[in-house]
Every structure is written in C-alpha cells, then in structure tokens.
C-alpha cells in the first residue's frame, strides 16, 4: 500500500500527495482494500483553504511516526469536501449524532469497512495532548484497540446510528402546504431574538454572513413594510462592509469573523460566499442607493474578474487563509509599512479611516477595519469630499500595489458548478443594480463555459480541472437553474432558456423523491452510490439548501412556461418539508422564500420587441426591489421556447414595435404598447 493521491486533480488532495501517510482517494479500490484487510477506515475530510486542515497536516500527516501508526492500523482515505459534498453531508451529520456536537473541518471519522458506518469521530486532533483532547497518536491506538477487542460493542453502536438515520428518512409528508404568513412571522420572531442590535448579525462570535437568512429578511422587510426587519439587514450589511471581514483593498469578503464586531476574519475567501453576497448587496442597493454597498459590489466583482476567473470563463473555488505558513499574513499591515507607501495626507486619511492610530488588532499588526461612516471621517478631517475621495483612491491603489508584491495565499483552481452558479446570479444582479454590462457579459460567459464543459446533454458534472469530474449533485442543478432564470430576467438568450428546461427535467428524473416529495442530494438513479444515507437537505447553511432553491426555481420556471409538472414537484417539496419548517422556521429561510412564491406567485412582465428596444421598458419594471415581480424582455428573433399562454405576434408591424404583457397564473393582460402605459399599469398594482 502507498499514497495514491499523486494522480488526483483536487488541489486539496494534491497537498497531501507527498505525506508519509498511505492516503487513498474514496473509490472502490480503497473500500475493497479495507474490507479485505478488515481494517477500519480513517476518513479525513477537508478542503484546500482550511486553516485547521493545514495545522493537522503539518503536525500529524507530515510526521513519519504518526503516519506509521496510521498506516499500520487503518486504511486512510482523504476526501475533498468540495468535490464530494455528499460524503461530507453524511459524515458531518453522523458526527453530530455520535458526539452531540457540531462538526467542522478537518472532519476525522473512523468507519466500519463493511458497513461504512462510523463508530467514532471528531474534527481536529492535536499532535500532543491539549485542552482535554488526547494526542492524535494516542487516539489512534485507542481506536485500533477498540476495533480489535470490542467489535460487538462497536457494531451495536453502529446499529443505533443506522436506526437514527432510518428515522430521519421516515419524516412524514404533510397533507397541505404550510401557512406562509404564520411561518414567516415565527421566523422573524426567532431571528429577532438572535439578532445583535449593536453590531449586526446573529449571535455573538464567530459571526457568519448568513446570506440566505438575510436575503429572506430583506424580502420580508420590503413586502411587509417591516422596519425592524429592514434594520436587521441594513445594519448587518453595513457592519460587514465596514468591517475586517471585507477586504478593503482588493475587494471580496472573507469566510467569517472570529469576533462579535466583524473586525478579525478567518482569512479564507470562498467563491460561494462572494457570489451570494453580490446578490444580497445588489438587492440592498435596489432598495435604495448606498455608496458603501455600491463600493463593496464594484470591488468584489472586480476581484472576481481580476483574480478568480479562468481564461475560459469559469471561476476558481477559493483563496487560502494562509500564506508562508501564517494565517492572514498577506492581508495585514505594520504601521511603518503603510507610512512608507503613502504621502502624509494619504496616511492621515488611512490612519483615521481604518484606526491605524489605535492598538494593533491582529498579531501586532493591523487588519483594515472601519468603525465610522466615510462621511464622518471626511468631516472630521475637514476635507472637501472630492479631494477626500481622490486621496482615498490613491492610497488604496498604492497599498494594493505593495500587497501584490507579497506571497499570495494559495489558489484552489478547481471550478465547481454550484459555486459558479451562485456567482453567475450575483454578477447578473449586480450588473443591473449598478448598470455595468461587463458583469453581465462575465456571467453569460461563465454560463457558456458550464454548458459546454460540464454538461454533455444528459449529465451535469460537479467539478472541472481541465476535464469534468463527478456527476453533479442537487446543489449543482438547483443553483444553476436558479442562475439561468436570473440571467433570463436580465437578458433573454434562447440557449439559456433551453438549458434551464433541460436541467429541470433532469433534476426531476435524477433527484426527485416521487413517493414522499422533495429532492435527494445525490442521483437516485446512480446504482454505484454506496452511501448508507441519502440526505434531503432543507436547512440554510453556507450554501442555500438544494430543496429550497429547487422549489423556488421550479415555481418560477413553471409559471414562466406554464408547465404544471414543475409546479407539482415544488408543491410536493413544500408539503414534505412542512414538518421541518414548522419545527424551526428561522433555519429554513430559503424554503420560506419558496413557500412565499408558491402562496403568492410573482407577477410576470413579458416584453416583446427588437432586442435593442427592450432596455427602456425593462428599466421601468426593475425600478426598486420587487421580490414579487419578475420581468423578461424576449426579442422576436430566434426564440422557440416561448410560454404557451403568450399571444403570438405575427405581422411585420408588430415585430418592429415593443409590446408588454402583465401575466399571472398563465394568463396575460391586453397588450401594453407604450412605456408610459406600462408605468401607469405598474403604479396601479
């Protein structure tokens, strides 16, 4: 047996290819080896940008003595959770059941090789005993002894775990869809109890963006004219955009803040966070102009296109938290470094804005972090606004140029379908919010990349590094379908409409639970699936749950194309999920959004005309944040996927003019033939 990771493509697995541990990828050869040798499987799940994964690797997996113990007693399997989220979901849940604690990465689980059920697990284990944790080698020896001497007890424990998963799979399906209004009120009440009114966000430290939650609260704030809900969203977005969780020089948001005030982040940058935050901040800008939010949008979109974009159009997965073996080293500053790089006036502005005159906030250095509004700083320094803006731009550019000379954090250059879909949606919405067609072009180019490189007409793939790998999961289909619908509402392309229907039909075929409703995370038609549990995710997490995204997307697609099969699948999903929604509405905000669309389907404005003439009409429909309205500008030429209920225009005169229809529940209004008439109609609604 030897380390077999050298032939893998995952940057995370390749980081471990030279370890003395005899790592195996998760494949049939490794599983069969474990069965044949009757050795327990040591399953280690992580990802390339994970700080504590690096720590455990340096302490234990690169250590010859530790590796010898691992190799002697176990078949060691290393998994990139970003390539195999199915494995990660199952074993994170198993860890939670076994330990009654939340999991994380690195996830360390010990499995029965014959059932693949875990009998012990944890996350990070230190090389030497620390904080009531045993050393990793001591733990390995205890686990091996238990496997050899207490097999019956471990088997009984595994059976109990299997029984728990059986109960999870047997959740009842409700006879009716839940009450959207009542569940929304419960969710907002629960979230208000968790909300940090002083610093924004929910809970104390650490603080995560919780983008799906905030997006739903913003929707409720607008549709219900709820000032408290609006305060929750706007305060949180302001604190984040001013805080150290945001990269004030290069753009983009870090994964989470380690403190209550958003000042000190965990410095990894994930594509999925930034794609979702683009969508959220774009919605916030649509509610009302905000310079802080607009700056965050511009700089984050700029960072994605500058640093994270593959030449063919897809977006890379992540930037590491560490560089040169230290977390955050690339991003933090010594005071003298800043002084040397700037003029006296520039330094005074940076010092005041980012608190460089206050005590260092990260390992004797400063992570840039704002507490005041820009307007307040300008007034305090008695500067003309235009001069202050120019000075700040000059100072930021100089500091970024200095930072660019440092050793950059590692890049995880795999391209993941679900994460790219979230980015497509974010760029498309940002292009509308700030009238930047370049970002729409980037979103469409990424879409074309996914369609040509990760889709063969029958199967969507989850990952790409020169070649597609791993049949896609529910999150891939759901988020890409959602992104395509967003793109169609910004600029209709026939290829996107066709692709959307293909994905929806395949998702119903591959993932739908026809008996109980809802969607499995993995393809149920795949006979090679070896997992002992088939998850059907509903809870909001770092990524929105596939069932919530799919239900919402099918509702929009069903109303767009008058296809009852899509609406039926969405309704069945909401029936099946009702018990989960009722237990904890605040944790299911994505599904609550789908429930709102089901209970009160969005109004559709369909505009037909020459492509070049559609823009003015669409701007009228997009005025403000309209969560219960969607508009489509469908040009006359080359569109074969029109909704059946849409009137067909056949005369030459009609095809040279623009006409709009207000459509609801598969029926459309009489033609609206002028922009003024459209404005009047929308103002009456």
Describe the model.
The protein is of the alpha+beta class and 685 residues long. Helix content is 50%, strand content 10%. The chain contains 26 helices and 18 strands. A hairpin with a 2-residue loop joins strand 17 and strand 18. Helix 8 packs antiparallel against helix 23 (589-599). The chain is globular, with a radius of gyration of 26 Å. The protein starts with 10 loop residues before the first helix and ends with a helix.
User: Mind describing the biggest β-sheet?
Assistant: 4 strands, mixed
Task: Let me know the number of strands.
Answer: 18
Helix content: 40-55%
Strand content: 5-15%
CA radius of gyration: 26 Å
Q: What structural category arises from helix and sheet content? A: alpha+beta
Mean pLDDT: 94
Name of the CATH class of the largest domain:
Mainly Alpha
How many distinct folded domains? Answer: 4
Shape: globular
CATH architecture of the largest domain: Alpha/alpha barrel
Tally of contiguous helical segments? 26
What's the CATH topology name of the largest domain?
Answer: Glycosyltransferase
Within the largest sheet, what's the order of strands?
2-1-3-4
Alpha carbon gap, first and last residue: 70 Å
Contiguous runs where pLDDT drops below 50 for at least 5 residues: none
């Amino acid at each position: 047996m030897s380390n077999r990771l050298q032939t893998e493509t995952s940057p995370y697995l390749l980081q471990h290819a030279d370890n003395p541990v005899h790592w195996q990828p998760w494949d049939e050869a490794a599983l069969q080896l474990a069965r044949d040798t009757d050795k327990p499987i040591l399953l280690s799940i992580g990802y390339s940008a994970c700080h504590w994964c690096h720590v455990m690797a340096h302490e234990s997996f690169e250590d010859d003595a530790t590796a010898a113990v691992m190799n002697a007693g176990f078949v060691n399997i290393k998994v990139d959770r970003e390539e195999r989220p199915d494995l990660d979901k199952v074993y994170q849940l198993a860890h939670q059941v076994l330990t009654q604690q939340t999991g994380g990465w690195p996830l360390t689980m010990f499995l029965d090789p014959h059932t693949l059920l875990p009998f012990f697990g944890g996350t990070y284990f230190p090389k030497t005993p620390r904080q009531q944790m045993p050393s990793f080698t001591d733990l390995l020896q205890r686990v091996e002894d238990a496997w050899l001497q207490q097999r019956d007890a471990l088997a009984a424990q595994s059976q109990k775990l299997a029984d728990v998963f059986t109960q999870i799979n047997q959740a009842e399906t409700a006879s009716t869809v839940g009450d959207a209004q009542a569940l929304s009120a419960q969710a907002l009440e629960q979230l208000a109890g968790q909300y940090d009114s002083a610093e924004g966000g929910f809970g104390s430290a650490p603080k995560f963006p919780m983008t799906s939650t905030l997006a739903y609260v913003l929707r409720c704030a607008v549709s219900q004219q709820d000032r408290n809900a609006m305060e929750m969203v706007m305060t949180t977005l302001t604190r984040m955009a001013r805080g150290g969780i945001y990269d004030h020089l290069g753009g983009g948001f870090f994964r989470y803040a380690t403190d209550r005030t958003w000042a000190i982040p965990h410095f990894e940058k994930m594509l999925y966070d930034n794609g979702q935050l683009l969508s959220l901040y774009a919605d916030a800008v649509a509610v009302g102009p905000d310079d802080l939010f607009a700056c965050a949008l511009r700089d984050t979109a700029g960072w994605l296109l500058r640093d994270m974009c593959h030449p063919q159009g897809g977006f890379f997965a992540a930037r590491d938290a560490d560089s040169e073996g230290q977390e955050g080293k690339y991003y933090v500053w010594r005071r003298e470094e800043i002084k040397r790089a700037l003029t006296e006036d520039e330094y005074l502005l940076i010092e005041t804005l980012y608190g460089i005159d206050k005590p260092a906030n990260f390992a004797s250095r400063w992570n840039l972090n704002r507490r005041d509004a820009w307007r307040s700083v300008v007034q305090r320094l008695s500067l003309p606004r235009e001069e202050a803006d120019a000075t700040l731009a000059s100072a930021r550019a100089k500091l970024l140029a200095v930072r660019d000379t440092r050793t950059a954090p590692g890049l995880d250059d795999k391209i993941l379908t679900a994460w790219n879909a979230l980015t497509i949606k974010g760029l498309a919405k940002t292009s509308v919010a700030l009238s930047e067609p370049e970002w729409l072009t980037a979103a469409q180019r990424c879409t074309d990349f996914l369609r040509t490189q990760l889709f063969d007409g029958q199967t969507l793939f989850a990952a790409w590094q020169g070649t597609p790998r791993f049949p896609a999961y529910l999150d891939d289909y759901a988020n890409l379908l959602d992104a395509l619908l967003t793109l169609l509402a910004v600029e209709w392309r026939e290829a996107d409409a066709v692709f959307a229907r293909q994905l929806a039909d395949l998702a119903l075929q591959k993932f739908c639970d026809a008996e109980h409703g809802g969607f499995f995370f993995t393809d149920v038609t795949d006979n090679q699936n070896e997992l002992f549990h088939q998850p059907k995710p509903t809870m909001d997490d770092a990524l929105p749950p596939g069932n919530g995204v799919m239900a919402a997307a099918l509702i929009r697609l069903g109303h767009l194309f008058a296809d009852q099969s899509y609406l039926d699948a969405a309704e069945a999903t909401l029936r099946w999920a009702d018990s989960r929604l009722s237990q904890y509405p605040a944790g299911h905000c994505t599904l609550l959004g789908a429930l709102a669309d089901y209970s009160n389907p969005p109004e559709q404005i369909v505009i037909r005309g020459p492509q070049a003439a559609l823009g003015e009409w669409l701007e009228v429909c997009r005025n403000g944040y309209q969560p219960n309205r969607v508009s489509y500008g469908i040009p006359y030429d080359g569109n074969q996927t029109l909704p059946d209920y849409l009137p067909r225009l056949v005369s030459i005169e009609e095809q040279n003019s623009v006409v709009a229809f207000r459509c609801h529940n598969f029926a459309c209004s009489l033609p609206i033939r002028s922009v003024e008439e459209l404005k009047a109609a929308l103002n009456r609604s």
